[in-house]
Q: What sequence folds into this?
C-alpha cells in the first residue's frame, strides 16, 4: 500500500518531479528587492556566472531561476498567458522553433535595446526574439583511430570513409535520434535544405550500423573512449567542452558547410516585470555578458563587439561563407507542422534501413 500511495502521489503531482527553482538573493541584501523570473533550458550551474554578472551590475535585483526542458518552457508560457496569469520575465531556450513560435503567436513582446540595431540581421526577429549564442554542428572523431589518415572534413569524405572502412567501423558511428532530439531534428532539417545529397549520407550511416542517441553526452563519451570512431552533426559547444577534458576527442567543422544553431532569448508578453526581463536581455547582449558567455559558460558568443576565441567574429573571420547560421525567422516553424515533421522522420527511418 505504501508503494501504491507513493506512485499515486507522483502521478497526481508531476510538477514536484521537476527541478526546484533556484533563488539568487539580491546582492544589496534588501528584503524587499524585486525578483527577475527566468525560465531556461540551460542548466543552472552553467548559467550561474551570467546570473552573478547581471546581479553585480544590478545589485538591487533577486533572480528566480527555473531550469526546464525546452518543451516545458513553451507550454508553461502559453498556458500561463492563456489563463490570464503572469509568466517569466525572460525565457532562454535552445528550441529555436518554439521560441520563434512564441514570438510569432504574440506570446513575446518587443524589446528595443541599445544593441538591437547592431545585432546581426539573421539573429534578430523584429526586436522580439534574439539569437544569443553561435553554436556549430560538427563532426567529432576518435583521434587515435585517425593516426594514418585525416578524419573526414566534408560530407562526401564522410560517406567515402564509411564505405571504404566497411566492417571495421560497423556500429562505431553515432548521431542524434531526430525523433527524440530537438537539436538533432533541427540540424537534419537544415541539412535537407543545404545539401542535395544528404540522403546518401544517411544511407551510408545506416549501412555502417549508426547508433542513435538523444543527448550529445552519450555520443561524446563513446568517441572519447574509442567505442565510436565518428559522430555526425554534434553540437559544437558540448563537443568543445568534451575535447578540452578528453584529449582523444577531435573536432572538425565540415568544410562543405557548417550549420550554426543558437539559443534564443525573449521577454514574454505576460511578464510580471518586463523591465527586468529587458534589463537581463540587455546584459545578455552586452559586451560584458557575451564575454561571460564565451569565456565562463564556454558557449560561443554572437555579439559583433566580442572578439577572441569562442566567438562568432573569430569563426566568421576564419571560415566565412562555410558557416550557415539558422536565421531567427518564421521559417523555423515549418517543421512544427506535424505532417511535414512526420514525413521527414519517416524518410529518415526508411533511408537508414536501406542497406
A:
Amino acid at each position: 500500500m505504501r508503494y501504491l500511495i507513493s506512485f499515486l502521489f507522483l502521478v497526481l503531482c508531476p510538477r514536484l518531479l521537476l527541478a526546484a527553482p533556484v533563488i539568487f538573493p539580491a546582492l544589496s541584501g534588501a528584503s524587499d528587492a524585486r525578483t527577475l523570473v527566468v525560465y531556461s533550458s540551460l542548466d543552472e550551474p552553467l548559467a550561474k556566472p551570467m546570473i552573478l554578472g547581471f546581479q553585480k551590475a544590478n545589485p538591487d535585483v533577486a533572480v528566480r531561476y527555473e531550469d526546464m526542458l525546452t518543451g516545458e518552457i513553451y507550454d508553461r508560457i502559453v498556458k500561463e498567458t492563456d489563463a490570464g496569469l503572469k509568466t517569466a520575465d525572460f525565457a532562454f531556450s535552445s528550441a529555436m522553433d518554439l521560441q520563434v513560435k512564441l514570438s510569432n503567436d504574440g506570446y513575446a513582446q518587443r524589446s528595443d535595446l541599445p544593441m538591437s540595431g547592431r545585432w546581426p540581421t539573421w539573429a534578430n526577429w523584429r526586436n522580439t526574439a534574439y539569437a544569443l549564442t553561435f553554436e556549430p554542428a560538427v563532426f567529432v572523431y576518435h583521434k587515435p583511430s585517425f593516426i594514418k589518415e585525416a578524419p573526414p572534413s566534408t560530407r562526401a569524405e564522410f560517406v567515402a570513409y564509411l564505405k571504404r572502412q566497411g566492417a571495421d567501423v560497423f556500429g562505431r558511428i553515432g548521431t542524434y535520434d531526430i525523433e527524440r532530439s530537438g537539436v538533432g531534428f533541427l540540424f537534419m532539417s537544415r541539412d535537407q535544405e543545404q545539401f542535395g545529397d544528404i540522403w546518401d549520407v544517411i544511407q551510408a550511416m545506416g549501412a555502417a550500423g549508426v547508433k542513435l542517441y538523444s543527448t550529445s553526452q552519450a555520443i561524446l563519451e563513446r568517441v572519447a573512449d574509442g567505442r565510436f570512431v565518428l559522430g555526425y552533426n554534434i553540437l559544437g559547444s558540448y563537443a568543445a567542452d568534451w575535447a578540452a577534458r578528453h584529449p582523444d576527442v577531435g573536432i572538425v567543422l565540415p568544410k562543405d558547410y557548417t550549420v550554426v544553431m543558437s539559443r534564443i532569448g525573449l521577454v514574454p508578453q505576460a511578464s510580471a516585470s518586463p523591465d527586468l526581463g529587458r534589463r537581463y536581455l540587455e546584459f545578455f547582449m552586452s559586451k560584458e555578458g557575451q564575454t561571460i558567455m564565451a569565456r565562463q559558460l564556454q558557449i560561443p558568443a554572437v555579439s559583433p563587439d566580442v572578439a577572441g576565441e569562442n566567438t562568432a567574429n573569430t569563426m566568421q573571420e576564419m571560415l566565412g561563407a562555410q558557416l550557415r547560421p539558422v536565421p531567427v525567422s518564421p521559417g523555423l516553424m515549418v517543421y512544427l507542422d506535424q505532417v511535414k515533421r512526420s514525413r521527414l522522420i519517416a524518410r529518415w527511418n526508411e533511408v537508414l534501413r536501406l542497406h
Residues 1-17 have pLDDT under 50 and may be disordered. The first strand starts at residue 22 and ends at 24.
